[in-house]
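[SOLVED] Predicted holo structure with flavin-adenine dinucleotide

Edit: marking solved, answer below. Original request kept for reference. I posted the sequence and ligand SMILES and asked for the 3D complex as structure tokens.
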Amino acid sequence: MTETADVVIIGAGIVGCGLAYHLTQQGATAVAIVDKDLICSGSTGKSAGGIRQQFATELNIRLSLESIRMFERMPEELGVDPGFRKVGYLFLASTETEVALFRQNVALQQRCGVQVEMVTPEDIHRLIPFAQLDGILAGSYCPTDGYAAPYEVTMGYAAAARRRGVRIHEQRAVTGILRESGRIVGVATSSGPIHAPVVVNAAGAFAGLIGDMAGVEVPVKPYRRQLFTTHPIPAFAAEPPLTIDYHRNWYFRGELGGCLFSGPKDEASTFNTNVEWEHLAESVEQAVVRLPLLAEAEIHRGWAGLYEISPDSNAILGSVPELAGFYVAGGHSGHGFQHGPIVGKLMAELILTGRTSIDISALGIQRFRTGNSVLEPMTMHQA
Ligand SMILES: Cc1cc2nc3c(=O)[nH]c(=O)nc-3n(C[C@H](O)[C@H](O)[C@H](O)COP(=O)(O)OP(=O)(O)OC[C@H]3O[C@@H](n4cnc5c(N)ncnc54)[C@H](O)[C@@H]3O)c2cc1C
């Protein structure tokens, strides 16, 4: 029997599951998600869960503000607790250029209504008294940023989507994109084709490969980032803000009374998600520069995931003009978990009505062809 759908979504991460839910919320009936693995087994399940309003463009700040409202409504809307902990986000600046960038961003964020401020080294010491602050000139701090639970949120969207009739095919790989006369007609998969007039590429770090299958350049590259957690540490009993040492592209936050800290980020693009345990000592050494107390801490676990990096560290959202029916929701460049809820809602609006309630046209794929890309410097592969 021929399998059909109105919309096929490739990828069951936060973006694919959120989009499926919102499509049904907005009236779609025949929606299918196809994932080569399991729900939330990609980057979403490996994420640090960070949610911040401290971005450098008005659009990203707006997407954060809307997403935060959606995270807050999840218990009523989806019946799941997203575990949103507003511990704050603290960015650390080590050069005058970084201080100037932070000042400029804070002014923009404040104009957008974000409760954020520049902080002095003395303020920073009060926030993270156990940290070594040599070389830190200033910081920016927003107490209403924080982190949530990626698995619970994604499973919440998946369950709600299923209740509304969405078919989720796990362990079924998309192996080709079916096209006829310049438009999408479905996907080929490891267990037969699914015919559909609309296909959404929400394949995270694999979005570039899906683009290749469709004969369209989707400029998303995978980069591995390793994370480690420690067993509980007394100094972390009162949870510190998620702290980003911007200059060193390194961060930490609390995790179940211990510390979650970032390990190495690969310079070269790779799909490898192995943890390099033989380099653990080096990662701890790097962490001890800011957190001397980690020298005595016991490592609990480590994992690695793939950032899905676009050329300007901004998401790629929208239709692909040269292939009717083909959409991309990818290239989130390390902030796809936090923007996942609003991205799902806006992509659903775009697919069903051709319009969106927030103008996301600046994030369209054509920006890379017309030279209109805008760098998001506060991302730089961070949480
Ligand atoms: C270590 C780390 C920390 C991070 N921390 C944060 C953070 O603090 N805050 C934040 O907002 N973001 C963070 N991110 C980024 C965030 O995880 C991603 O932006 C987000 O999860 C992207 O969601 P997604 O649904 O697009 O992709 P994914 O969750 O990767 O889902 C894509 C799915 O597509 C499937 N797929 C791929 N190819 C195929 C195919 N051919 N056929 C079928 N299925 C396919 C995959 O199996 C996968 O399940 C972090 C990422 C990493 C790696």
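OP edit: The first strand starts at residue 3 and ends at 4. Thanks to everyone who chimed in.
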